[in-house]
Write a structure and sequence with these properties.
234 residues, mainly alpha, 61% helix, binds fe (ii) ion, HD_domain, HD/PDEase_dom
Length: 234
Amino acid sequence: MPPTHSAPAAVEPAVRPCGALIAWAWSLAQRHLSRELPRRWQHVQGVAECGRRIGERLLTGDEEELLVAAALLHDIGYAPGLVVSGYHPLDGARFLVAVSAPPRLVNLVARHSAAEFVAEQRGLTTDLARFPDEHSTLRDALWFCDMRTTQDGRPTTFAERIASIRARHGPQSHLVRALDAGGQLARHDAVRRTELRLGAAVLRRVSPHRGEAPAPPRGDGDLGAARKPDRRAR
Ligand SMILES: [Fe+2]
């Protein structure tokens, strides 16, 4: 049964704050989204739950926490009180700079889910360029979770998520034009890379030597022995 799009009921938090950064991100997102944009609040909780789930398989320590924090805050720029440019990754990033968020967190929010393609459609490329895209496993994981979570915070497929965006926004919107200009492919590639990394992580867990590059020769001794002529045979 497809997700309903009626007004969301109160939900049990999917991700409970634990580390200091997550706790801070949680309270900030809750304050700005939960009352005025309850459905958006559900969505970011779903994205954060996805981040918690895959972060422990793909990342370590501080990066796991950063992924969940970025997931909680990635759409904070939609909060009515924070709108300046009207483009939520940019408004969210600017707000996070103002509250002294860690720079990596700011940049992840600014660049999430192929934001540069929409920025180009809206004439905001120069504004967004201030925030570099780190092109990392963590960044791909954030995009993956955003693209695999419905508006209501439930898991979905990439194809359904894209279809939902296209249906809601229409072909003339900046967002759909950005998808057609390369944004969809960029999102797809980040999702695919994350799927491959998750698959490799499963293989490593089942068989620790699978899913890794072949081990190099063990020192010069092995190669040297193979290459040296056997003097005794002369
Ligand atoms: Fe989102």
